[in-house]
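To assess whether ligand presence alters the predicted conformation, the chain was also submitted together with phenylalanine. Input:
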Amino acid sequence: MTSASQERDKWGSKVGFILAAAGSAIGLGNIWRFPYVTGQNGGAAFVLLYIIFVVVIGLPVMVAELTIGRTTERDTVGAFAKLAPKSLWTLVGMLGVATGVGILSYYAVIAGWTVGYFFKTLGGSFSHLMTAETSVNIFTHFVSNPAAAIGLLFVFILLTALVVMGGVSSGIERWAKILMPVLFVLLILLTLRSVTLPGAGKGLAFYLKPDFSKITIGAAGKALGQALFSLSLGMGAMITYGSYLSKKENLVIAGCYVAFFDTLIAIIAGLMTFPALFAMGLDPAGGPGLVFVVIPTIFAKMPGGDFFGAGFFLLLSVAALTSTISLLEVPVAYLVDEWKWTRKKAVLIMSALSFTLGIPSALSNGASSWLSKIPGIGTGFLDLANIVLGNYSLTLGALLISVFIGYKWGIKAAIAQNEKGGNTFYFKNVWAFLIRFVCPIAIMLIFVYIIWTKNYF
Ligand code: PHE
């Protein structure tokens, strides 16, 4: 076990870090969240907005977070305390810690579903799946079972805790290295089957032919939130991961790799989902159950479908695990660095907390009618957590981080830190411009619009 209070752990290698950061980024955000949010917000035009936000806001904030982390070698709260002592900026770190625990709580519920779907597929539940309706029924039935939902949530949090207990290099890094490439291959296989289904054309058009009338500020807010969520930004996950990074690494290059692979996987996931979805006659705006309904219909139509299907859900669970690890690592690093807790104690208490907070999300998909449709709000608890924490809290975090770098800590200091150890900071003027002006202004405009029009969901 690693005792971070003595010698701080470091990533074992450059590839190891990139894979771990990519492992944090690539997860349910790409394969579960991206397709359904795209479906709800009009398809191709949304994808375009998403890509723009990845480049002009995601990448600069990624470099910012990694820089803050590596410079301070501290957890997200400690990092702000070190760069701006005795100021309210530590609250940004606190917001990140709280958001991390909150996202983990509902994310692990969905991750639990993927584990459940692995066993279902293995058991042949989808072998003779003919209609989309059957798939919908299986899904609805499965997620409304309270014991299964809570049990799988528990299993997933437990797995996460076991890995995080092992510390960053031995635990997290080793896992990420082996399994991510296999998932990629399976994703391509499913996509090939999906785009060759009869009737796939309509889905391709929906996904790839932008209808510019769908571009609204409301959709932009969702696209931005999705970009931040998918890249693990706005809550200090990349500050924390950056804090274990050696001074020799070039952060701009590392950030570009991570953003590129993350976006690639999301785009492919959409390409896998929409052709099959339209071929099956399903509604693209179907919400969080979307991929769980669509994917089984794809491998029901593949030779060796059960095998590929089970493999797919297993690897998706692993992709989710490399993300939950980073979510748990944020509060754990905080307690270990700032409160001098042992890693073990921090992991135990934070995972117990996340599990408890996850229970209402687990029950909000049919098990409890109140939680599934909260009176006065109209959405379920999980959906609400997903929008408040997974969208707005990250967006607010990204805004504050860009203001912090641009106006408090300062662009010059950040650039100097990045150039330490002889690194070239590519496009530093572009970065400075984006982080000082484009990020804060764009995010503020989106917030003002959302509050003005009360267009929260
Ligand atoms: N980026 C992860 C995903 O796409 C989720 C995540 C968000 C992880 C924020 C860490 C921090 O699945």
